[in-house]
Design goal:
Helices cover 44% and strands 10% of the residues. Strand 4 (432-436) and strand 5 form a beta hairpin. Helix 33 crosses helix 34 (580-591).
């Protein structure tokens, strides 16, 4: 008997399940899978189809047949119950996916509302869940489902883009999505909707720092063109309109009637972007720079390789566009300075270049540059703290400009090395190369000629570490990391505990850096440019002598001795409070390292005032001895002097940075002396302590 006979039998049987549930009876009929599907579809209700899965002979059918039966259930509620039957546990994700994708919106919604079903039973990924949500038509349902799943921002954004205008704008006004997501949603509006939104929501856009050109620049050409045609219907400012016109695709100009456009609009349309995907225009320094006035937001320029003519024009542009971004680039790491910082730093750089006489050799010029640089700036005082900024500490011109307290902003090793490299190249010294060790950056001077004290000249590769010379240069000491060999500078990587920090470790780039100045020749070079006296003695000698005189005078008055030593620091370095790393070193290695000063503990470090929202680092000195007990001195940037306080008062006013705590305790609270964090190593060390000059 075949399927026709079975069909005839079913037509005469009131209870169709009596036949489908009879395994022996079904075996008497010969039929194909398609015949079985046809009979089930024609004779069983959806509830009866669900009942089939209770019969062992249906449970033992192949997975593909059972999937086929499920597909033939039309009622959403029944199909859902069938999908989650334990008997279907051998279904894989593709089986479920095939069924669900062809189901009604109601069933898809029901499945997604049961997160465990969708993700645990069906093994749907967030991406697959997101795809299902996007195909739903009810925005309220989609919003509710988005709250159930922990979707990534990009996935949520792709769903929100499928909302109608009302719901898109509701999302745009939420605080819990990023400005970039809001911009992406606004780009999906048509030009009339966008014009209306901008006209009614300028305050909202300003609050989130969303520029209108951010929105328009990412739209397709047709949408850009349509928006430009309605430009005058918005309440945008004149400069906002010019920003949009400067960044629209150049091809849309051919479709615009420019006859009624102001000249300023036309000049904006003629501008070009620096690249297809940027929101920055390419500035032509040979043009009338006034055309760029008001376009500060879309101008970012790296002027590192400008010639003198370009630099002169660029300085004029800094006055015309005082809020544009000025980029410095360290191996692709871009940092930003302001035009005012650029002008201030370049004026200082110009003053340094004026000190380089034409007859000076390259090494003499580098000596002056390195020395002046160390006196100008410092190591970042908040390095590794919760307020540290990776970008500001590497922004070339920001590092060299003064902060609100009169000191420079400071930077870190690759920022310092890059800045000295830049100044050297400004001076015409091209054989300067930025090199990195295991965790530090410095300079390699290649193929450089160096005069020796014996009248000979040597030529080769050597190393200059501007960062580790900072302290020595600020206080007029012999720079211990000036024109030395790779072999020698690697010795400087070994700390007092014998640990190799590998700061300069780089065999590949530095194995040929074998050139090294002997001490006599180094002193002669610095003497020749006025940085040491005629005998090669460095100015630090005077500070050492004065410190020793103070120590003798106040030999029996330790507290007054300390006060006078700190007063000496104030006199020789008025900016001592804004360069705490360097100040810490001279305090610990010279001023408080005299014969008559004997302490149980002496700590120099940084803290911040608890009332200071910016947590600006404050230099402090803590001393503990039998004669004085405990006493704190902290540097006041406003007053430019040290102030004394008791431990109680100090702890009431100041707080340690997290990185400076040891097991939650500040350094002065530790019962035993620990290996303290050497903040000063980052800005140089008086390696030899100038013993030969004492």
């Amino acid at each position: 008997m075949d399927s026709k006979d079975l069909r005839a039998l079913l037509e005469n049987e009131p209870n169709k399940l009596n036949i489908f549930g009879n395994r022996e009876l079904l075996h008497e009929f010969s039929m194909s899978v398609s015949d079985l599907f046809s009979l089930i579809q024609d004779f069983l209700t959806d509830e009866e189809k669900l009942t089939l899965f209770k019969y062992p002979h249906f449970q033992s059918l192949s997975k593909s047949i059972r999937v086929g039966i499920l597909k033939r259930i039309n009622d959403d509620f029944v199909k859902f119950k069938a999908l989650i039957l334990p008997t279907n546990k051998d279904f894989d994700k593709d089986d479920f996916k095939e069924i669900v994708e062809k189901s009604s919106e109601n069933l898809i919604t029901k499945i997604l509302e049961h997160k465990e079903v969708a993700t645990v039973l069906f093994h749907f990924t967030n991406s697959e869940v997101c795809s299902l949500m996007k195909n739903l038509s009810d925005d309220v349902v989609k919003k509710n489902l988005m709250n159930i799943y922990q979707l990534e921002d990009l996935s949520k954004l792709s769903i929100m883009k499928t909302f109608d205008t009302q719901y898109k704008l509701e999302e745009v006004k939420q605080d819990n999505i990023s400005a970039s997501s809001k911009i992406s949603l606004l780009r999906t509006l048509d030009s009339h909707e966008l014009v209306q939104f901008i006209s009614e929501n300028k305050d909202f856009l300003n609050k989130d720092d969303i520029k209108i050109y951010n929105i328009i620049d990412g739209m397709d050409n047709e949408s850009q063109l349509e928006f430009v045609r309605h430009l005058e219907e918005t309440n945008m400012t004149f400069n906002e309109k010019r920003e949009v016109l400067a960044l629209v695709d150049g091809s849309i100009k051919d479709h615009l009637d420019l006859s009624d456009f102001p000249e300023e609009y036309i000049t904006a349309l003629e501008m070009k972007k620096t690249s297809e995907f940027s929101e920055v225009i390419d500035v032509d320094l040979d043009k009338d720079l006034e055309i760029y006035k008001g376009l500060d937001n879309i101008i970012s320029i790296c002027p590192e390789n400008f010639d003198e003519k370009q630099r002169a024009s660029f300085l004029k542009l800094c006055d015309i566009c005082p809020n544009m971004d000025i980029i410095s680039d360290i191996s692709g790491f871009q940092c930003y300075s302001t035009p005012s910082e650029y002008k201030e730093a370049e004026a200082w750089i110009g003053s340094v270049l004026e000190k380089l006489k034409p007859e000076y050799s390259d090494v003499q010029k580098i000596a002056i540059i390195d020395n002046e640089y160390g006196k100008r700036t410092s190591y970042s005082p908040n390095f590794k703290t919760e307020t540290y900024d990776d970008f500001n500490s590497r922004a070339l011109w920001k590092m060299l400009s003064k902060n609100e307290f009169g000191g420079c902003n400071g930077g870190v090793c690759n920022g310092h090395a890059h800045a000295v490299e830049y100044i050297c190249k400004r001076a015409g010294i091209q054989n300067v190369k930025l090199v990195s060790g295991a965790n530090h950056t410095f300079l390699k001077l290649e193929d450089i000629e160096i005069p020796l004290s014996n009248g000979e000249t040597i030529k080769g590769n050597t190393i200059l570490d501007p960062t580790w010379n900072l302290t020595n240069n600020r206080f007029g000491a012999k720079p211990d990391n000036f024109c030395i060999s790779y072999k020698t500078i690697r010795k400087h990587d070994i700390d007092i505990y014998g640990n190799d920090k590998k700061c300069h470790f780089n065999d590949d780039d530095l194995k040929d850096a074998t050139l090294e100045l002997d001490e006599k020749s180094l002193r002669q070079i610095f003497s020749s440019v006025g940085l040491a006296d005629k005998d090669g003695v460095f100015p630090i000698t005077n500070t050492i002598k004065k410190s020793e005189e103070i120590d003798k005078l106040y030999a029996n008055q330790p507290k007054q001795n300390i006060k006078e030593q700190l007063l000496l620091l104030e006199k020789i370095c008025p900016e001592f409070a804004t360069c705490p790393n360097s100040s810490m070193r001279i305090i610990s290695d010279i001023l408080l390292c005299n014969e008559n000063l004997d302490f149980d503990r002496c700590i120099t470090n940084r803290v911040y005032d608890k009332e200071d929202e910016n947590k600006v680092p404050v230099l402090y000195v803590y001393v503990k001895s039998q004669d004085m007990g405990e006493v704190f001195f902290h540097a006041s940037m406003e007053e430019g002097k040290f102030e004394e306080s008791s431990r109680t008062d100090f702890e009431k006013r100041f707080q340690c940075y997290d990185v400076d705590l040891e097991n939650g305790l500040p350094p002065w609270n530790l019962e035993e002396k620990q290996e303290e964090q050497n903040l000063t190593a980052s800005s140089g060390d008086f390696v030899e302590k100038e013993e030969d000059e004492r």
